[in-house]
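Class prep. Protein, please:
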Amino acid sequence: MTAPSFRLATVDDVPAVVTLVTSSYRGEASRAGWTTEADLLDGERLDPQVLRADIERPDSKVLLAERSGELVACAHVAIEDGAGYFGMFAVRPDLQGAGLGKQVLGEAERVAREEWRLPAMRMTVLTARADLIAFYERRGFRRTGATKPFPYGDERFGRPRRGDLEFAVLEKQL
């Protein structure tokens, strides 16, 4: 698979990034890939205002992966509590499973390790997503034992289809 080119998102990219992230996790389109959360959550996966804030704030980068000028993947990396934070990771559903996600994760780790000189990268993953947690564990992330509650009632993060959602905190030493 051809390596993507990477660039930082601008506020002009907000609509395209929201569309990509939503198509990777929510609704019928997301079922074309393996990252779907369609059985767990309905609604939007990413609030445009939250994305805009992530793009504009210091110590935060929204990475875009492109092929021939087309957006194919994205991720958010930021400095949080002395470590890198990795989130908003999305690969176009029809391109999942071919190594593109590993390349995006590698670029985010490079930013945290080389540009910011951070010792570790952390992320949160829904505990119900055992397949996704296993993906990250194969890439060196480990469960910390900590969990965070799902923001029930805040539709900016979706409408839960079940009442037992929570996030596992994963960490990788860089």
About this structure: The mean pLDDT is 92.
